[in-house]
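Hey team,

Filing this mostly as a record. A colleague (T.K.) asked me to run one chain through the structure pipeline before their review meeting, and I want the input and output archived in the tracker in case anyone asks later how it was produced. No errors, nothing strange. Just documentation.

Input sequence:
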Amino acid sequence: MPSVVFDVVGTCFSYDNGAHALHARLGDKLAKYGIPSKLLFYSWITSTERDYSYLSQIKQYKPFLEIMSHTFTRILYQAGVPESDLEGFYTQEDLDYIVDGHRNLKPREGLAEMMQILRQGGFDVWCCSDANVERVKGYFDKAGVEMPLDRILSADMVKAGKPEPEVYKFARQKAGSDKPGEVSVFAASHAWDCAAAKAAGFNVAYTTTYEYDECVAVFGKMDLVVPDLVSLGKGIVDKWGKK
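Output structure:
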């Protein structure tokens, strides 16, 4: 049976709730310095991804949310909040509210339909995330989308963070897609994630729903590029499904 392994956070679920939580809590304060809260939030996410990956590479792996929770002051300073104003700029309650907002992600439009298309098309569907298993399971359950617990893979299981090769090797082994002749697809809305999966032997499907620009000159050409999740499901079945 062909298999498809999905990235979860950013691909199947949007970051927008976290951005909304930051704006609700600190938007007025940030506006005084000309800092858009949405831009700050996404800068915080990408800087956390960098630190998460770098710590993994030097074998000092730490969970994503742990890093995120301890680097907010840094991102405020880098965004332009003066050092003299950092103390007292936010409370622990503010931070907890924002991080909880990030935990409570909303499904992207078309998620349930995409999963149905893939399963009806004969694909065994998995997901592989930097988030822990319980968190990922909660996302799908709350969205009313089936994702069996034994089909959820976390980087925590191998104590390595994306985009380290160990994560993708682990995903291919668990999904049974490292066997000769088996079709294995990795799907994500992060170009770096797709590039790492391709290097590990996956066919890769990329949706521009999060990053918009494929950036071929940086990440190389993906095997499939589509604008949304429903198109992603249909494209995977059409390209790699059993004829």
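Quick notes for T.K.: The radius of gyration is 18 Å. The beta strands are 3-6, 13-14, 106-107, 124-129, 152-154, 184-188, 203-207, 224-226.
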